[in-house]
Design a protein that fits this description.
54% of the residues lie in helices and 15% in strands. It contains 7 helices and 5 strands, in the order H-H-H-H-H-H-H-E-E-E-E-E. The protein has helices spanning 2-10, 14-36, 39-55, 68-95, 101-123, 128-141, 146-157; strands spanning 163-169, 175-183, 186-192, 199-206, 218-221. It has a 5-stranded antiparallel beta sheet, with helices on one face.
Length: 234
């Protein structure tokens, strides 16, 4: 059985990696949480461990016992490398000059304004809904680096007509808050968890009676359950 699993993992069988994740993810998480003392860091360590397992699958020996020790070895290396990178980052940050908070806020605001202007330039007009829609597409269809995601959210706040909705729900009925835009009798909402601000999904519904239906009619709804990185398209 284990030999079959090793062969499947070495061959890059997605189902085998799904089984591997289901069997070991929680154990790796508990190990990482004990080691780092940080739940967020532990979650990152789990993701990086399985990404590394995929990358290093060809090095897994075809013969042997369970694959747990191999996976835990990868997890230990991931946390060791992450801790080393964090130390280097802190050392580099300590050598950087301290910026005045007001100047930093002004710099960020200027950069976000430029970003929004670029969005308008790319779409060829100043239509605020099209800019809102562009940002939604970026957020929904690809994994965006945290700094870029933060800049796009700040740019969204500058779009005329954008509003905050205190209560909303995605297609899985997960409750949250929403950033919304109204256009042509329809409201588009981006839904976020109220505590973690994780992106949950979207929904579109009518806010005025029309030939398409009565106010409140749900036009579309989605739920983002996970976003992952792969090493190939498809």
């Amino acid at each position: 059985m284990e030999r079959t699993m090793r062969t499947r993992l070495r061959a890059g069988d997605p189902a085998a990696f799904s089984e591997l994740f289901g069997e070991h993810a929680q154990t790796i998480y508990r190990y990482a949480a004990r080691t780092t003392g940080d739940r967020t860091a532990a979650e990152d360590a789990v993701s990086l461990t399985f990404l590394e397992a995929w990358r290093l699958r060809g090095r897994l020996k075809p013969d042997g016992g369970g694959v747990g020790p191999w996976l835990f070895g990868i997890a230990a290396n991931v946390m060791r490398n992450t801790a080393r990178a964090a130390r280097r980052h802190r050392a580099a940050m300590s050598r950087m000059p301290v910026r005045d908070p007001a100047e930093e806020a002004e710099r960020i605001a200027a950069a976000v304004t430029v970003l929004l202007e670029q969005l308008y330039t790319w779409q060829g007009d100043g239509d605020p809904f099209r800019a809102f829609d562009q940002i939604q597409g970026l957020m929904s269809e690809r994994i965006v680096p945290p700094a870029t995601r933060a800049a796009l959210y700040r740019a969204t706040a500058l779009i005329p007509g954008v509003r905050l909705v205190a209560r909303s729900a995605d297609a899985m009925n997960r409750q949250g808050i929403a950033v919304a835009f109204d256009a042509d009798g329809e409201r588009t909402e981006w839904i976020f968890d109220a505590d973690s601000l994780a992106f949950l999904g979207t929904r579109d519904y009518l806010i005025a009676d029309s030939s398409r239906g009565r106010a409140g009619t749900l036009m579309s709804s989605s739920a983002v359950m996970s976003q992952t990185v792969t090493d190939q398209a498809g």
